[in-house]
Specification:
Blueprint (H helix, E strand, L loop, with lengths): L8 E7 L28 H13 L4 E6 L3 H7 L8 E4 L4 H16 L4 E4 L5 E2 L2 H16 L3 E6 L10 E7 L9 E7 L4 H10 L2 E11 H11 L1 H14 L2 H11 L8 H11 L3 E6 L3 E2 L4 H8 L7 E4 L4 E5 L3 E5 L4 E5 L4 E6 L2 E6 L6 H10 L7
Parallel strand pairs: 1-2, 1-4, 2-3, 6-10, 12-14, 13-15, 14-16
Antiparallel strand pairs: 4-9, 5-11, 6-9, 7-8, 7-9, 8-10, 16-17
Helix pairs in contact: 3-6, 3-7, 3-9, 6-7, 6-9, 7-8
C-alpha cells in the first residue's frame, strides 16, 4: 500500500443539500451532515474529515459548503485551513461544487489529483476504504476519471447502479474495471437482476481524477458552466476581486449533477474506471435506512437517537429521534418512525420513509418555511 498521505492528492468534501427525507431533523440551517446520526459522538461531517485527512493530509482537505454553514463547519473541523473553505452563495448542485474546487486547486497546483467524497455518508472498515481510494488515485494518475462503487448487499431501489466491465490492467490498481454505464435507480425486479448478475455496483458518488481531466470533461458537456467556473477560480484567491466576481457569475451557474455532466459522458467515451469498494457504506437517504443503521440491521429492534430521549416501548420496532426530552410511549407498533423536535413532529413508517420529501414540498408550497 502507498505511504500516506499521498503527496499529489487533495480531498474535496461537498457539504451541501438539506436532506429533505430526514425532515424535521435535517433542515436548511442544520442539514444532516451537521448531525450525529450514528451515536458515535461525531457528526457525519466530522467523521468524513477524520476518514479523509490521513489520505491527503489535514492541510489538503477542502470543504465546499453554503455561506450559512461556515461557522458550524469550522466549529466541527478546527484544523480546516481558511483557504480551503469554499462558500457557495446558494446551491448549484454537484458539478458546480466539485468543478469549482477542481478549478481552484488546478490553479494552485497544476496536475493535482482530487477526490470528492460527500459529507453525509457513513463508511465502515476504513482500512478497506483507504485501500480503494489509493487504487482510485493510481487509476486517476493513468488518466481515468475514477469512481468507487459499493458491492451491493441487497436489491436496493434507492441507489443508482454502475454497470461494470472488464479489468483495465492498471499497475498498482489491480481492482480497476471499465465502467460500461451508469444506471438510474431501478425498480425492485431490475435491482434483483443486477444483484444476481454480479456485474453491478452501487453508485456512491465518489469521484477521483486529475483536476484538469475533470474540468475537460465538464467543458465537453457544459462549456458555459466551465467558463464560469474558470473565471470564478481565477478570482478566488484574491479577496479584493472574489466577491464581485462571485456575485456576478454564481447566480447564472447551471444546476446539474456531476453524474450527468461528467460520469455518464466519460463512461460512454471509455474514460471512466471503477474500483469496487468492499467496505460498508450508507448514504442515510431516509429514516428507514437510519433505523436499519442504528439497529444493526435487525428489523425487530427499536433504534433511539437523542441525547435526552425518553422512550417507553412495548413490542414496537423502528426508530425514534427525540430532540425535546418529552416522554414518547410506543405500544405494539412495528416499523414506526417518530421524529420529535421542538416545533415539528413526524410520525410515519419505514415503508413510507421516502415520502417525507413530499411533506417538505407541501410545507414549502403552503408558505410554512419557518419549519424547513
Amino acid at each position: 500500500m502507498s505511504a500516506l498521505p499521498l503527496d499529489d492528492f487533495y480531498c474535496v468534501i461537498p457539504a451541501g443539500g438539506v436532506g429533505s427525507r430526514l425532515w424535521p431533523l435535517s433542515r436548511a440551517d442544520a442539514p444532516k451532515f451537521l448531525h450525529d446520526l450514528t451515536g458515535s459522538g461525531s457528526t457525519l461531517l466530522r467523521a468524513t474529515w477524520d476518514r479523509l485527512a490521513p489520505l491527503a493530509g489535514a492541510q489538503r482537505v477542502m470543504v465546499v459548503t453554503g455561506r450559512a454553514h461556515r461557522a458550524a463547519v469550522e466549529a466541527q473541523i478546527p484544523a480546516l485551513a481558511d483557504h480551503n473553505v469554499v462558500l457557495e452563495s446558494e446551491p448549484r448542485d454537484s458539478t458546480a461544487a466539485i468543478g469549482l474546487a477542481a478549478a481552484i486547486l488546478e490553479r494552485r497546483e497544476p496536475g493535482v489529483i482530487i477526490g470528492s467524497f460527500a459529507a453525509d455518508h457513513v463508511i465502515g472498515n476504513e482500512p478497506l476504504f483507504r485501500a480503494a481510494v489509493i487504487e482510485a488515485v493510481t487509476a486517476a494518475r493513468a488518466g481515468y476519471i475514477t469512481t468507487i462503487g459499493i458491492t451491493p448487499t441487497e436489491p436496493a431501489i434507492g441507489f443508482g447502479y454502475i454497470h461494470v466491465g472488464d479489468p483495465l490492467g492498471i499497475d498498482g490498481a489491480k481492482s480497476a474495471r471499465k465502467v460500461l454505464s451508469f444506471v438510474e435507480k431501478p425498480n425492485l425486479k431490475t435491482a434483483t437482476k443486477y444483484l444476481a448478475s454480479g456485474d453491478y455496483l452501487w453508485n456512491a458518488s465518489m469521484f477521483i481524477a486529475k483536476a484538469s481531466v475533470l474540468l475537460e470533461e465538464i467543458g465537453k458537456s457544459e462549456p458555459e458552466l466551465l467558463a464560469g467556473l474558470l473565471e470564478l477560480a481565477e478570482a478566488w484567491d484574491d479577496p479584493a476581486t472574489r466577491g464581485p466576481v462571485v456575485d456576478r457569475i454564481w447566480p447564472g451557474i447551471k444546476k446539474v449533477a456531476i453524474d450527468y455532466s461528467v460520469a455518464e459522458p466519460a463512461a460512454a467515451a471509455d474514460k471512466l474506471a471503477v474500483i469496487p469498494g468492499h467496505f460498508s457504506w450508507d448514504d442515510i437517504g431516509d429514516f428507514a435506512s437510519l433505523a436499519k443503521l442504528n439497529s444493526g440491521g435487525r428489523a425487530t429492534d427499536l433504534a433511539i437517537l437523542g441525547e435526552h430521549a425518553r422512550v417507553l416501548s412495548d413490542a414496537s420496532s423502528g426508530i425514534v429521534v427525540s430532540q425535546t426530552g418529552r416522554v414518547i410511549s410506543l405500544i405494539g407498533i412495528k416499523n414506526v418512525v417518530v421524529v420529535d423536535t421542538p416545533d415539528a413532529l413526524l410520525v410515519t413508517t419505514s415503508e413510507n420513509a421516502q415520502r417525507v420529501k413530499s411533506v417538505v414540498e407541501a410545507l414549502r408550497l403552503t408558505g410554512s418555511t419557518e419549519v424547513l
